[in-house]
Amino acid sequence: MQIRSPAGGSQYIPMSEEAAVRREVVPMNLLIVDDEQSIRETCATVWSNADEGRRRGHRRRGAGVLEHSPIDILLTDLKLQQTNGVELLKQVHDVHPEVAVVVLTQYGTIESALEVTRIGAVDYVTKPFRIEELRSRLERVGAAVELQQENRLLREQLRTRPGSAG
User: What contacts 142, CB < 8 A, 6 or more positions away?
Assistant: First the structure.
């Protein structure tokens, strides 16, 4: 890192070990909630191959996983046998607002897309989907989640920095 001094020169300040460790990429966790095993497996494969393998996919069906595992992104079907995807989205948004939710549906309408985005979904993908389309959308959502996490971390560092007001 270089910092300009008032005289116009520059000074090299090495990054602390703590800062270097915090800059490492932490794999993100994806929870896939879909009644169809083939969809869960396809989505997990797309996720694990996205972004140079930095991501780790979960192929679990139950939303209860959110209570026991750190989840960054939830990919859920809109129509589920046990529950309604809209209700799941509401629950996740209320309890875990930091989790980005992407909704999958075979029965896509403009009304349902508007409803889920109003509730808090960050994206909406219709089935059948193209692999590249899903990969692109998941990468975009993953990048947004990474930025939010980095923003929270930097705010916390500033807040706890000696001499800062906060």
Answer: 28, 50, 51, 55, 72, 73
Q: Which residue has the tokens 């879909």?
A: 34
Average pLDDT, the chain: 77
What is the β-pairing status of strands 10-12 and 2-4? antiparallel
**E-strand spans in the chain?**
2-4, 10-12, 29-33, 56-58, 73-77, 100-105, 123-126
Tell me if 66 sits within 8 A of 11, measured CB to CB. no
115: three-class secondary structure by DSSP: helix
Angle at 25 between CA 53 and CA 16, to 5 degrees: 150
**Percent of the chain's residues with pLDDT above 90:** 28
pTM: 0.74
| Encoded amino acid at 25, one letter | V
